[in-house]
């Protein structure tokens, strides 16, 4: 995956947080059985060398586990966490297997609550329930 829109769409899917990473899975529903993988590691984790090393480790993990345990027709996104680079590779392998197992047992589209307002943004007067009820004819 390379488009930002795909990563944002995956963020609305199912998630399985682990100590070394967060796994996001979203079924595309486009009829294509291909599994896609996306990897992201932020600058908070470290410099370019550290981030690229972590991404290489995630690519190897994905190649090893996704064909057998991934969801066909879904986008899988691995988000690196701060402790992920120091974790043993065998431990990351076990955690990814566990995360994929957790994802498989969850419902396909869990209902999420309404989006939270952004920090620093105030609700408009017309957005309040009282204002909406007074607008009805």
TrEMBL record:
Residues 102-137 are annotated as: Disordered. Belongs to the RnpA family. One of its GO terms (molecular function) is tRNA binding. RNaseP catalyzes the removal of the 5'-leader sequence from pre-tRNA to produce the mature 5'-terminus. It can also cleave other RNA substrates such as 4.5S RNA. The protein component plays an auxiliary but essential role in vivo by binding to the 5'-leader sequence and broadening the substrate specificity of the ribozyme. Its EC number is 3.1.26.5. InterPro entries: Ribosomal_Su5_D2-typ_SF, Ribsml_uS5_D2-typ_fold_subgr, RNase_P. It holds the Pfam family Ribonuclease_P. It is an enzyme of class 3 (hydrolase). This is Ribonuclease P protein component. One of its GO terms (biological process) is tRNA 5'-leader removal. The keyword Iron does not apply. Transmembrane segments: none annotated. It catalyses: Endonucleolytic cleavage of RNA, removing 5'-extranucleotides from tRNA precursor. Consists of a catalytic RNA component (M1 or rnpB) and a protein subunit. PANTHER family: RIBONUCLEASE P PROTEIN COMPONENT (PTHR33992). Keywords: Endonuclease, Hydrolase, Nuclease, RNA-binding, tRNA processing. GO terms for cellular component: ribonuclease P complex.
């Amino acid at each position: 995956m390379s488009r930002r829109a795909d990563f944002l769409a995956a963020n609305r899917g199912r998630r399985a947080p682990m100590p070394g990473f967060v796994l996001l899975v979203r079924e595309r529903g486009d009829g294509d059985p291909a599994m896609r993988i996306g990897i992201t590691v932020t600058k908070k984790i470290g410099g370019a060398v550290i981030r690229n090393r972590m991404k290489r480790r995630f690519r190897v993990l994905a190649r090893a586990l996704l064909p057998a345990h991934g969801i066909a027709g879904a986008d899988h996104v691995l988000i690196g966490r701060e402790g992920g680079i120091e974790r043993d590779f065998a431990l990351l392998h076990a955690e990814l297997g566990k995360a994929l197992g957790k994802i498989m047992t969850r419902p396909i589209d869990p209902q999420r609550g309404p989006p939270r307002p952004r920090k620093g943004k105030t609700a408009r007067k017309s957005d309040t329930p009282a204002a909406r009820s007074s607008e009805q004819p």
